[in-house]
Specification:
The structure is a single chain. This protein is an alpha+beta fold. The protein is built from nine helices and five strands. Strands 1, 2, 3, 4 and 5 form a five-stranded antiparallel β-sheet that branches. The chain is flat, with a radius of gyration of 31 Å.
Length: about 280
Amino acid sequence: MTQKELEQKVIDAEGRVAKREAVLKKHNSQLAKMIEKGADRFDVSIKREDIKSATSKLAEARETLANWKDKLNTRITRDAYIEANTPEILKDFLENWKQHAIGYYREKRIRFIEYREGLKAKERAARLEALQTLPSLEKYRELYKGRELTDYDLANLWPRRDVDAFLSERGLEYRQIQKKLREAGDQITLKLLEIHNEDEREAWLEKTMEEEKRAKLLDLIGRIMSTVGTITDAAALYIGPEGDINGIIVGTEGKAKIQTIGAGGYNIQCFHFRTLIHEIK
C-alpha cells in the first residue's frame, strides 16, 4: 500500500471517528433531555443502551484510526530510512528493473490476448470439424447446410458429450483451454486484462511495480547493512549491460562483494535476480 493510500485510510478513519463522536454526543444530549422531562425509566434504559453501543463503536473507530496512523508512520519512517541510507546506484539499479518489468508486463498482456484468440480460433475450427464428421451431428449438417455458422451455433451442438470428447482429443475442451490460459498467465497479467481503460491500466501497473521496487530495495538495503553496517562508500559498484549490479560496497562494519545473478527458465513471469552479498574478511 502506497503512502498516499495510507494517508487516505487515515483521513477516512478520522471521518468515521468524527461521525461516531457526533452520534454519541447526540445520544447523550437526548438522554439529558429525557431525564429533565421525567421520561419513563424504560425509555431511559433504552437510551442508555444506545449510548453504550455508540461508545463501543466509537472505541472501535478510534482503534482503527490508531492502527492506520501507526502504519502510515511506519511507512514514512521506512521511506526516510531508504532515502537516507541508499546510494543512488542502488536506486538506479532497481528503477531499471522496474522499467524493465513494466515493459515486460505490457508485452505479456498483448501476447496473452493473442494466445487466447489463437486457442479460440482452434476451438472453433475443431467444432466445425466435429460438425462435418461426427455421425451424431448429421442432423445439424442438414439444418445448417449453406449457412454461415455463428459461435453460438457451434457452442450448442448436441449431444454435447460427443462434441466435448472430440475437443478433448485435441486438447481444446473448455477445461483444457482454461488450464492452458492459467498456465500462460500470472496474477499481474490477468489483472491487467481486467482493466479495460488504458490510463487506469497503466496507473495500476506503475503503482504495483513501484511497490515491488520499494520492497526489493528494503530487502537489499537490510541485507547489505546487516553485513557491512551503515553504507559509507558505494563508488566501486557498477550496473552491467544486463541490468545487474556488482562490485564492492563499504560500510562502518566492513566491506562486501555484491554479485547479481539473473534467473530465467520456463514460465518465468519477469526478470528475476538474486543479489548475493559476500563479506570480505
